[in-house]
Amino acid sequence: VLGVLGDFNSRNTSWGYTHRDHRGQIVEAFLEEETLLLLNNNQPTRHKASNGNFSAINLTITYINYTTLFD
C-alpha cells in the first residue's frame, strides 16, 4: 500500500482549518504514532455547491518511506 485517500470528516490546522475538532485530533495522533505523512497542502479538497463553501476534509496519507518515490 502506497497511500490512503479518504473523506475523514475531521478538522485540523495541519490540513487547512483554523481550528481542530475531536476527530482531527484523533487523526493527527494516529499519523504521528504510525509515522505516516499527510500529503495535503492546506488547499481545499471539497467544494459544497449548495453554499459555496470550501473545505479540506479529504486527506491523502502515505508512509514516510514511500515519499522518496516522488523525488
Q: Tell me, what's the shape?
A: globular
Question: Termini separation (Å)?
Answer: 18 Å
String of helices and strands: EHEEEE
Oligomeric grouping of the chains: single chain
**Percent of residues in beta strands:** 25-35%
Report on the structure:
With 71 residues, the chain is an alpha+beta fold. The chain starts with a strand and ends in an 8-residue tail after the last strand. Helix content is 17%, strand content 28%. It has one helix at 22-33; strands at residues 3-7, 36-38, 46-48, 53-55, 58-63.
Summarize the topology.
Blueprint: E1 3-7, H1 22-33, E2 36-38, E3 46-48, E4 53-55, E5 58-63
Antiparallel strand pairs: 1-5, 2-5, 3-4
